[in-house]
Design brief:
The protein is of the alpha+beta class and about 90 residues long. The protein folds into 2 domains: about 1-40, no CATH class; about 50-89. The protein has helices at about 20-25, 60-70, 75-85, and strands at about 10, 35-40, 50-55, 55-60. The protein has a two-stranded parallel ribbon.
C-alpha cells in the first residue's frame, strides 16, 4: 500500500541562511523528491501581514487561502476547509 508523503512549503525570511534553516528543522537537502520546500524571497513580501500564534510566525490566513487555491495537490479542498473553519465565510 502506498501512502502519500506530506509536502510542506515554508517561507523563511531573507535574513535566514537556508543552511541554518535546514539545520534547525533537522532536514537534509535533496536533489529530487522532497517533503519540505523552503521558500525565500528577496524582499520578504510573501511574509507581509504574517500572524503570530504562540510566538511562532505563521502565514497570513488570506495568503494561505490563495496559495492553496493554486496548489494542484488537493489545494481546492484544503482552501475550502480553511475558508469555512478559520476565515469564516
Amino acid at each position: 500500500m502506498l501512502t502519500a508523503t506530506p509536502i510542506i512549503d515554508a517561507w523563511i525570511t531573507e535574513a535566514v541562511d537556508p543552511e541554518d534553516a535546514l539545520d534547525a528543522i533537522e532536514a537534509e537537502p535533496a536533489s529530487d523528491g522532497h517533503n519540505v520546500v523552503l521558500l525565500q524571497a528577496k524582499d520578504d513580501t510573501p511574509l507581509a501581514l504574517r500572524e503570530s500564534i504562540d510566538d511562532i510566525s505563521v502565514v497570513n490566513r488570506f495568503r494561505l487561502y490563495l496559495d492553496l487555491l493554486n496548489d494542484p495537490h488537493r489545494g481546492r479542498e484544503q482552501a475550502d476547509h480553511l475558508r469555512q473553519e478559520v476565515i469564516g465565510f
